[in-house]
Amino acid sequence: MHACVLGANGQLGRALVAARPDAVALDRAALDIGDSDAVAAHDFTGVDVVFNAAAYTAVDRAETEPAGAWRANAAGPAHLAAAAREHGFLLVHVSTEYVFDGTAPGPVPEDAPLSPLGVYGASKAAGELAVRAALPDRHVIVRTSWVVGDGGDFVATMARLARDGVRPAVVDDQVGRPTFAPDLATALLVLAGSGQHGTFHATGDGEPVSWYQLAREVFARCGRDPGDVRPVSSSEYAADKPHVARRPANSVLDLSRATRAGVAMPAWRDGLDQVLARAPR
Ligand SMILES: NC(=O)c1ccc[n+]([C@@H]2O[C@H](COP(=O)([O-])OP(=O)(O)OC[C@H]3O[C@@H](n4cnc5c(N)ncnc54)[C@H](OP(=O)(O)O)[C@@H]3O)[C@@H](O)[C@H]2O)c1
User: Fold this and answer.
1) Distance of CA 229 to the CA centre of its chain
2) Residue pLDDT, tens place only, 116-141
3) What is the DSSP letter of 180?
4) How far apart are the CA of 49 and the centre of ligand 1, in A?
5) Would you tell me which of 17, 84, 95, 246 could form a disulfide with 117, CB atoms 3.0–4.6 Å apart?
């Protein structure tokens, strides 16, 4: 299987390239997925599967820069789906739980209605729709959440604050399950080889936590008192920050379909020490 990774310099892209070092790795400079001419002109000869890890992921900035988000997250996947139709490769496209509003009472199923709260989620939802429309029978869309593992993520930030003796205020009314980037990369490879198509969820397994609870766990593993982390509500946190996007209260995704397809997502707690080991010191 000849693979190509787009967005190869991002958090997930790097994990994919590490898992498949034989893949053709294209960062934004090598292929800008928002550029329809560049995607149409790209030579995909011999490529069986394209993993699209390229995205505009600045959730708050998207509220004031919507054109950038729509270009990468909606137009980009549409260009790639057109190329997949032409060249016959399998498109494995990555999406997010931000396509939902987070009001579901439990783990959100794959077929729940799309109802994004902000620009980032709306642009990612449009990207999903474009892929499904162009490749109705032959696409793999994988939604994930709370990706960590590259040293610049929430866990690494909390580890730094723990070491610096800071007592942070962390949001306690958004619940989810962290996803270790290498585990997500493995899941994408399994799904690509499964012969199954459609929409799947892949996140860390195990007990859901709030950001506050996750921060407490990081503080404890760093040898700090978890009591140094203060819980705040989303509205308190955003009170003095005018451009904070609304986020889903419930980010927990139902993993059933991916599990049936052969994906075994490890519990997020099992990956936490590895994430901490990668955090800059
Ligand atoms: N991070 C999370 O918590 C999270 C949660 C749920 C879902 N996801 C989804 O997971 C996927 C991977 O996210 P990530 O965490 O790896 O994000 P990331 O670290 O921000 O990586 C995204 C990469 O895409 C590149 N990119 C942006 N616009 C591009 C374009 N027009 N053409 C080509 N490349 C472009 C970026 O390059 P530049 O650095 O040059 O901009 C960056 O290297 C995305 O689809 C994201 O929506 C992420």
Assistant:
1) 25
2) 999 999 999 999 999 999 999 999 99
3) E
4) 18
5) 246
DSSP assigned state of 209: E
Atom nearest to 35 CA in ligand 1: 31
Could you tell which of 12, 57, 60 is best to mutate to test the pocket of ligand 1, judged by most ligand atoms within 8 Å of the CB?
A: 57
Structural domains in the chain, sorted by start: 3-148+178-206+252-267 (3.40.50.720)
Residue 21 confidence (pLDDT): 97
Task: Indicate which residue's Cα is closest to atom 8 of ligand 1.
Answer: 96
- Could you write out the DSSP letters of every residue in 6-68? ESTTSHHHHHHHHH-TTSEEE-TTT--TT-HHHHHHS--TT--EEEE------TTHHHH-HHH
As a whole number, the mean pLDDT across the chain is 96
Whole-number pLDDT of residue 242: 78
pLDDT for residue 87:
96
Distance, CA 64 to ligand 1 centroid (Å)? 18
Query: Any idea of the CA torsion for 141, 142, 143, 145, to the nearest 10 degrees?
Result: -150
Ligand 1 contact via 16 beta carbon (within 6 Å): no
What positions carry a catalytic annotation?
120
Structure confidence by residue, pLDDT tens digits, 150-166: 788 999 999 999 999 99
Instruction: Give 253's pLDDT tier (boundaries 50, 70, 90).
Output: very high
Q: What confidence score (pLDDT) does residue 275 get?
A: 86
Q: What angle do CA 204, 10, 40 make, to 5 degrees?
A: 115
d(CA 236, CA 32): 38
Q: If you measure from the C-alpha of residue 11 to the centroid of ligand 1, how many angstroms do you get, rounded to a whole number?
A: 7
Instruction: Residue count of the chain, please give it.
Output: 281
223: left (phi over 0), alpha (psi -120 to 50) or beta: left
